[in-house]
Amino acid sequence: MSQKKTEFLEPVLSNDLIVTLNAAIGERMLILAGSCTAFFDGRIKSTLELGERILIIKKDLSILMHGVSGVKPLNWQKPNQGPISFLKEKNELVMYTKRKKTEEELWIRFRSIDFVILWSGSDFSSLEIYGDESDLVQYLVKHPSIIEKDLQILSTEYPTDVGFVDIKALDSKKRLIIIEVKKRNATPSDAFQLKRYKDYFENIENKKIRAILVAPSFPDKVKKYLEINNLEFQEVDWKNIFPTISREKNMKIDDFFF
């Protein structure tokens, strides 16, 4: 008989529940919700008083326990750090794990259980992430014609007294150009910042320079401000030209939260 992909267990503390949970560890994802406490004993000690929480144990033995708000887990453990087991103590469902290398212990005690789910999900795809703004700048540096033909790049992240200029370049007539790059739609503050850069360099160079704001789109009020202040703009839909950057799916939780 084939195993159900999603199985909802009766949230009643019993020997059968303990046996089923222990058998599922490492084979299926476990999701439990209820009222619990937590205690961690290691290089540091932490105690979490009674509260409503969700406990997730993944197939790789990573552990996440979340409260009712926030993105960070209240307690967590990296994949394959040590064996996990469930037991019954004083009418409480207890999850216990001990890390092999450090011998640190995590106890989670459920006073009551709202629901228990076993899920046999699978996911073999890689995580595709569009690069951040600095990645986009580097892409435009390698493909400057996207901004303007015959553009000669001089530097990136150029430091000034009013901030770091994304791209400093020369146009086909050897005129200095200051370029500010945004992945999101342009805002008035982006236009104000570009003007500050332009004023800064014109004061230093003692001559007129060009300044271009690059973004996917420009609201009318931003376009009007740019035109009034002799600032240029270039619409670049980065989603059409900027490649995705592959990340492995086994990224550490630290990469997201800490």
TrEMBL record:
Q: Which residues form the Endonuclease NucS C-terminal domain?
A: 133-238
| Domain of life, per lineage | Archaea
Record carries keyword Cytoplasm: yes
Q: Which keywords fit this entry according to its UniProt record?
A: Cytoplasm, DNA-binding, Endonuclease, Hydrolase, Nuclease
Would the keyword NADP be found if you checked this record's keyword annotation? no
Kindly list the GO molecular function terms attached to this UniProt entry: DNA binding; endonuclease activity; hydrolase activity
Q: Where is the Endonuclease NucS N-terminal PH-like domain?
A: 28-118
Q: Which InterPro entries match?
A: Endonuclease_NucS (IPR002793), NucS_C (IPR048301), NucS_N (IPR048302), NucS_N_sf (IPR049173), tRNA_endonuc-like_dom_sf (IPR011856)
Output this protein's name: Endonuclease NucS
